[in-house]
Sequence to fold (185 residues):
Amino acid sequence: MGQIKKPENVCLVLGILAKSRAEVESVRPALARKFGTEELALAPFAFEFTNYYREEIGNTPVRAFFSYETPIPREEIVEIKLWTNELELEIAAAHGTPGLRPVNLDPGYMTLGQFFLATTKDQRQRVYIRDGIFVEPTLYFQNGHFHAFEWTYRDYASPRYIEYLEEVRRRLAYRHTTGKPYRLR
Fold:
């Protein structure tokens, strides 16, 4: 019989899809109040992978990512996803567009072996946690790099995302090894 033990805390990574760079910047203070100090940011860039969000976010959305310095227990992803969903609704109401989100927040977490996204939608590869929230293994780490599964969203399999997430992982590995957050020297 295996010994039960609590897994290491994980790194919170938040993807933001928004109408503009200004929208990304406007949400960052709320995220910092909730999650603390950003550890690594991927500045907003044009999102060109799908038109799925066109009606809500517009024709020229931008994507950005932020990872946070304070590790979290992986089960907290449920509360985080519920909170980000509420924040999306608040932002939509403030813009006078209830039901149409000008900002889409995609929380996920990274272990040394995988990157997971939280979602409210069930699919064969997603695992139900609780309170209507599932997690999806999105990338796995092998031979020094992240790799996509057959179901991974195309954008998450792209070189730009992989490069960013591999740097987040390097910082997480440093934290696991030293017990301290990564600091530029």
